[in-house]
Design a protein that fits this description.
heterodimer, A: mainly alpha, 9 helices, B: 8% strand
């Protein structure tokens, strides 16, 4: 036994207990903030295509709203982080709606390739074709784009998407694949 | 179905730029004390009693006198 080894003094983080404490007094929200800030900031940052200042503001608003509404949070199979994602998702959508013109979000080529593969669009794509497919994607309903974004750009699992929308995992999967089918259909029609 | 207003447009990032925040960017915005004080400002109710705020007290007295004058006029 190593006598010089410091004993572990850290107690394991008990999320349920911490949420109960934060419900009683907002000052106890700190550990939850420390735990989830990075995840939520990253989520918003990617949704805004790397806009640092706006991401900081929206992240702050998300956590203030979470603190103000923590009484409404009930752990009925919904993870706390999914509840935070839901608030952040609404904040970002509100931000998009407030813009006078459509907000441009840059996405990585690797992630776009993921959509192409999942949609079953085979074969080599020229840059021009990629742009045409991107136009088709942009022409889709905003609600559909939200789902595509969560799955392929944010790389969330179907369980996480299901939690955000309060639907089942199977339903989330079905919705995403229906959108991809629609995209594939439009692509094939355009190619004819 | 009516098509919803276009909120954002995706463009392909051709330069291969990584759209992930770096640790410094995260650190810059991570400050619980700041959001806690903002939260307090937004939610905290007025704790100072009315009689301890002379300006507000005087304002209510003036409003009261004006109302009485108008009623008995």
């Amino acid at each position: 036994m190593n006598l010089f080894k410091k004993p572990k003094s850290q107690t394991p983080f008990n999320e349920v207990q911490q949420i109960a404490l934060a419900k009683a007094d907002a000052k106890h929200f700190g550990p939850l903030y420390e735990k989830y800030f990075d995840t939520i900031f990253r989520f918003i940052f990617k949704r805004l295509g790397g806009n640092e200042a706006e991401s900081g503001d929206l992240c702050q608003q998300t956590f203030i709203k979470a603190m103000a509404n923590i009484d409404k949070y009930e752990d009925r199979g919904l993870n706390f982080v999914s509840w935070l994602y839901r608030i952040a998702q609404n904040e970002v959508n509100m931000f998009f709606r407030k813009q006078s013109k459509a907000y441009t979000v840059e996405i990585e080529e690797r992630k776009f390739t993921g959509i192409i593969e999942e949609a079953g669009i085979v074969g080599y794509m020229t840059q021009d074709e990629q742009e045409k497919l991107m136009d088709l994607l942009n022409a889709m309903e905003q609600e559909h784009l939200d789902l595509i974004e969560l799955r392929f750009f944010q790389e969330l699992s179907f369980k996480e998407i299901a939690d955000i929308y309060s639907i089942t995992e199977a339903n989330a999967k079905m919705r995403v694949y229906r959108i991809l089918e629609k995209l594939q259909k439009k692509w094939n029609e355009q190619k004819k | 179905m009516e098509r919803t207003k276009e909120m954002r447009r995706f463009t392909l990032n051709k330069e291969g730029k990584n759209i992930e925040p770096n640790p410094n960017q995260i650190k810059r915005f991570k400050d619980f004390s700041r959001i806690y004080s903002d939260y307090e400002l937004l939610t905290k109710k007025r704790t100072r009693p009315l009689y301890k705020d002379p300006k507000l007290y005087l304002l209510f007295v003036i409003i009261g006198v004006l109302v009485l004058l108008l009623l008995f006029d």
